[in-house]
Design goal:
The protein is mainly alpha-helical. It has one domain. About 75% of the residues lie in helices and about 0% in strands. The protein contains 15 helices and no strands. The termini are far apart.
Length: about 350
């Protein structure tokens, strides 16, 4: 089966699932009450949420720059712009294409090796998984938090914690150059040659979890970033006049993080709303207010991402075709030693 046919079937499945979710919402929700919830929203709080979101992206850019400490040099503003552009792509393109775009923009613009960039994103994802474990454990410790089942939460926490520990141990034990393992010696010459070339770059990309100081700083930044995300949902709640405890926003933050990590539908449309509705129902939020919050946060977040991404493209002088270009004008740089 060709790649285009698989993609078409995947899109069809997402459209069918989305249609079913929307019909279910329309059947269960009073649309008149939903409209009044939007009409009565305090949109000044949405502006505040946008300001907090920009802080979140800036912290993420600092975190990414730290993970690139041994891969190569890229300006902080350039990484900030690449993150905004990647988030824009994630908002309008199926799957997680924006993560690929972030790497492409930085590789093409600043000549950093793609292997090192991919590894750095992997290291960041591993750190993020650790913070997710912390938030899941906190959610289980709070008596008023509604979030999945405890058995499922502990399973997810255990799996993420095991992955983090294994990655940290592997990053410290694996050599900087391709090891002389028997299984690698049996690879075809071209594959072994490619592995020898890219191995040091991948090794450099995991510097952030190999060096204790970098690991601690990145964990603290990531933890702060999660706190900022929590504040964003709190601001959204104020915009839609929801009187909820912080534990409710903690639940929403964790669930949205999981949905973002494992997207099911195009732009998480439908699945996002259903997940947020399920959480808010545990706190006795009326269905129309809950849907207004869910749909409103999704719509406004998407609008923020598109607007900020377009601004970043304009400031960086990037045309849409350049965002998806596989190769830049310059050659990839080598690994920078520290």
């Amino acid at each position: 089966m060709t790649r285009s046919r698989l993609l078409s079937r995947g899109l069809l499945f997402q459209l069918v699932l989305l249609s079913g979710l929307l019909m279910l919402a329309a059947w269960q929700i009073d649309l008149g009450s939903l409209g009044r919830s939007f009409a009565n929203a305090n949109y000044w709080w949405l502006a505040f949420a946008l300001a907090i979101y920009c802080v979140s992206r800036a912290v993420h850019a600092v975190e990414w720059k730290l993970t690139l400490s041994k891969v190569g040099e890229a300006p902080l503003l350039g990484l900030f712009g690449a993150l905004l552009i990647g988030t824009l792509v994630n908002a309008v393109v199926p799957a997680a294409a924006g993560d690929v775009v972030k790497i492409q923009v930085v590789a093409n613009r600043y000549g950093l090796p793609r292997a090192g960039l991919v590894a750095s994103r992997g290291a960041e994802a591993i750190i993020n998984a650790l913070i997710m474990v912390i938030f899941i454990i906190v959610s289980l410790a709070l008596p008023n938090v509604g979030f999945a089942s405890r058995n499922l939460a502990w399973l997810a926490a255990g799996a993420a914690g095991a992955v983090f520990v294994a990655a940290v141990v592997a990053s410290r034990l694996l050599p900087e150059t391709l090891p002389a393992w028997r299984v690698l010696a049996r690879l075809p010459h071209q594959f072994r040659e490619s592995a020898e070339r890219h191995w040091p770059r991948v090794h450099a990309g995991f510097e952030a979890i190999r060096k204790p100081r970098l690991l601690v700083v990145n964990v603290l930044l990531n933890l702060f970033g999660w706190g900022v995300d929590l504040a964003i949902f709190w601001a959204y709640g104020r915009a839609f006049h929801l009187q909820l405890p912080w534990s409710a926003y903690l639940s929403v933050t964790v669930v949205v993080a999981i949905l973002t990590t494992f997207p099911i539908t195009f732009g998480n449309v439908g699945t996002y709303e259903v997940a947020v509705l399920s959480i808010l129902s545990l706190y006795s939020v009326p269905s129309h207010d809950a849907l207004a919050f869910a749909a409103g946060t999704h719509v406004f977040s998407t609008a923020f991402n598109i607007g900020l991404g377009l601004c970043a493209m304009w400031i960086m002088g990037l045309r849409p075709g350049e965002v998806f270009r596989l190769r830049g004008n310059g050659a990839e740089s080598g690994v920078r030693r520290t």
